[in-house]
Amino acid sequence: MSVTSTVSFKVSATLAAAGIGALIIASGALAQATSSRMKGLQLSNDKPIQIESDKLEIKDPESKAIFTGNVKVVQGTTTLQAGNMTVFYKATEGATITSGNADIDRIEVDNRVFLSSGTQQATGDSGIVNMTKQTIVLKGEKVVLSEGKNVFVGCQLNVQMDTGEAQLEACGGRVQIQLDPQSRKQN
Asked: What start and end residues bound the annotated signal peptide (predicted)?
């Protein structure tokens, strides 16, 4: 019999699909455990996105762009790093990834995913952003969300972007949370 430990909480998450697009994930503190809220890792639609990788392969007939080797995406104070990133876009007349007018369907990242914005960080082995379903899934043997000394550990984080609802799963073990008492809002 398999036992799965799950914790649910509110998060703020934003995905910017300008240009090639980028993945972003956010975390929020448990409302029941602390009154402090995590603001969320986010991208802004009004700032340029810079993407670096060892290789870029554009496959317009397959409606995808594949970034491989030391992928780094930066927008403002937000950074995404991964070994690989594949951007899948919807095949529409005249839309290409190089023209910047492609409508992104989903983004997949893998090979040690690291997200950072200000004091917040998230790490995992792989991630998928589904623009159609407005979901973000970050998976790994150990998925870690942190802001300062507040740390959330599981193996899969599911975020519903339109509502900010999130669920951290432990996949057979237990979800681990460490909250810094100094992060509580002082009255």
From this structure: 1-31
Beta-bridge mates of residue 109: 85, 127
Could you give the percent of the chain with pLDDT greater than 70?
Answer: 71
pLDDT tens column, 126-145: 999 888 898 889 999 999 98
3-class DSSP assignment, residue 165: strand
Element (H, E) at 47: none
**pTM of the full predicted structure?**
0.73
Q: How far apart are CA 147 and CA 124, in angstroms?
A: 15
Q: β-strands 78-89, 120-130: how paired?
A: unpaired
More confident residue, 169 or 78: 169
Kindly state the DSSP code that residue 133 receives in the 8-state scheme.
T
Q: How far is CA 78 from CA 41, 121, 172, in A?
A: 7, 10, 32
Superfamily for 6-183?
Answer: Lipopolysaccharide (LPS) transport protein A like domain (2.60.450.10)
